[in-house]
Amino acid sequence: MKNVNLKKLIATLGTAALISTGLVVAVAAPAQASTPVCVEDAKTGVITCDGALSNGAKYRTMVPSNYGGTFFFWQHGVRPSYPYPGYVVPTGVEQMSPTSVNHKVSTVKPMLQLGYGIAAYDCSSNGLHGWNTADCVEMLNELVTITKKRISITKTVVYGSSMAGAILTPYIEKYPNGADAVGILAGVSPSIANTLKSGCDFLYIFSVFFDPTIKGCTVMGTKGVPGHMAVLGDFAKVGALLTKWSVDYGSSPIAYPAPLAAAGIPQRSALLLAGLIAGIPTKSSHMDGISVGGLVPEGSINSTVAILENAQDFLGTAYFGGQGVAEVVGAGFYDNTKTNYSALLADEDLGRFTVGLSGDDAVNAMLATLAAYPRVEGVPASVAKLAALDKSKFDTTKPVVLLSNEADRLVLSGNQVHYVNKAKAVYEARVAAWDKRLADATDQPEISFLLKNKPVWNTVSMYALTPDTYTKFTATGAPDLTAPVAISGVGHESFTKEQLMTWVRVLASSAKTGKVPSQTVLNTILPKVPYLNTDPDYQPAELKYQD
Q1: Left if phi > 0, otherwise alpha if psi is -120 to 50, otherwise beta: which for 347?
Q2: pLDDT (0 to 100) of residue 19
Q3: What is the pLDDT of residue 462?
Q4: If DSSP codes are grouped into helix, strand and coil, which group holds residue 453?
Q5: Cβ pair 479, 249 in contact under 8 A
Q6: What is the 3-state secondary structure (H, E, C) of 48-86?
Q7: CA dist., res. 542 & res. 391, Å (int)
Q8: What is the pLDDT of residue 320?
Q9: Does the global pTM surpass 0.90?
Q10: Residue 115's closest CA among 68, 156, 165, 175?
């Protein structure tokens, strides 16, 4: 998902009237496929070529003077197809290689200095973006193919961020010779249905406890500008709540539904409940889930503010990603008629966050309300299409290198856990089949062959962790949400330069050898990079839904 300035958007969309005006978007006709135009930088010797794919989408390649044969092809995340305040639709290559929003880091220069060729393209279909993952698979393959015809490439790496996980995973399965290594940064693990349903649950709970006019995921699905405007209109209602809570921290009592209003449960407790049910991180850019002081008397209150801060951007997945997906699978993709919200609330969370949830009686009252409240009945065809979207087997034998933040608030880090679990199941099944074949083998040539070709685990899962504590407080005792963000482990596509370049180097090494580094080698690499996890068995919380 692209990092969008949702705080600015929320401020701009202060009232629904601001988004009720007409929106006119000019979609350019697809350009003709073109021979790239190349320019050599007289100072650096870097040759930059700009061209267009067969559907007119722009691409760019950059080759340094010390090019060594390894080429990286970057796949960006989702982009909304229509503009809104604070966001302009890309019209060409916007990002050449991994960047970090929090740290203002670009990896273009260091990657070129290492002798790597780099390429990127604008994944647009007929001038539009959205959840066009199937088109992106083919466009990426075209980019790799035409680049190999122009440039001598010995090792190919395809890598990308966010939505790229739902592109690169099916890409390497469909085109197994299309790359020597795959890198997924803060990426979605197919299917997006797992994450999106949690986002829809989050919005549904908003409609129950905070504003019954919020439509959430039921507003999504109308194609084009009308659908875009409908989503923005609903987003404005949620934005108004977030703006209010940023001032009073949700201290006002729940007003909806009427039977629950008399209980006097603060809105922040319902927000915390919604966040825990959806799996939103309880750490954020400024809130560490631990520190106390002033207006934050207890750790669970710290985590409540973390969910408030994270919610502003988690909505990017729920609304803009959801609308893009709905335009592909159709309206009505969300169905919670069989959802047991009590089961989605972990026992350990109930114990840890008792104070923030206002006690057992409040929790039971809120869960009982959710159980009795009218549910959303989806359209079966759309629900089925969403479940099948970007379907993957997770069976590539090529090296795969994963990197996520511990507390990613947009693409939940449980996506990486999901990828590893799926790939591990395939690997273990292969080992079991290999063991049986070896046990049954009686022919020496076959035995020798099997011993040389035992399945290998070819995935590395790295996480950027947060510092233990980092919350700052103002003189009034309020958490300082304007202080510098945590140096590591938070935000989306936000990593230190050292973390990003370690990921890149591991990818290059894996492409060269055909295998990810051994744990012994990783034990010499990872400890040198501040805040990179060094425990191979570490994993953050799993997704609430897993196909």
Answers
A1: alpha
A2: 33
A3: 97
A4: coil
A5: no
A6: EEEEECCCCCEEEEEECCCCCCEEEEEECCCCCCCCECC
A7: 19
A8: 85
A9: yes
A10: 68
Query: HEC states along 261-319?
Result: HCCCCEHHHHHHHHHHHHCCCCCCCCCCCCCCECCECCHHHHHHHHHHHHHHHHHHHHH
Structure tokens at 426: 């395939």
Distance, in Å, from the CA atom of 376 to the CA atom of 351, rounded to the nearest integer, reads 30
Q: Which two tokens stand for residue 120?
A: 């990127």
Q: Which domains does the chain have, with CATH numbers?
A: 6-23+193-386 (no CATH), 34-190+393-528 (3.40.50.1820)
Helices 267-278, 193-209: inter-axial angle, 10-degree rounding: 160
What's residue 16's pLDDT?
A: 37
Secondary element (H or E) of residue 134: helix 133-150
To 10 degrees, the CA torsion angle through 190, 196, 199, 200?
A: -160
For the chain, count helices (H), then strands (E).
17, 11
Q: Which residue bears the tokens 């049954």? A: 440
How many C-beta neighbours within 10 Å does residue 88 have? 8
CA angle, residues 296, 302, 305, in degrees to nearest 5: 105
Cβ burial 455-483 (10 Å sphere, 16+ → b, else e): beebbbbbbbbbeeebbbbeeeeebebee
The three state secondary structure string of 462-519 is: EEECCCCCCCCECCCCCECCCCCCCCCCECCCCCCHHHHHHHHHHHHHHHHHCCCCCH
Closest CA to 503 of 532, 523, 527, 524: 532
Q: Strand 155-161's sheet: what is its strand order?
A: 34-40, 47-52, 58-63, 117-121, 70-75, 155-161, 181-185, 400-405, 459-464
In the chain (547 residues long), the average pLDDT of successive 10-residue segments reads 50 40 38 78 97 95 98 94 83 92 89 98 90 96 97 98 96 98 97 95 97 97 93 93 91 91 94 96 96 92 94 83 94 98 93 94 96 97 96 97 96 97 98 96 94 96 97 94 96 95 98 97 96 93 93
Tokens 């995973």 sit at which residue? 169
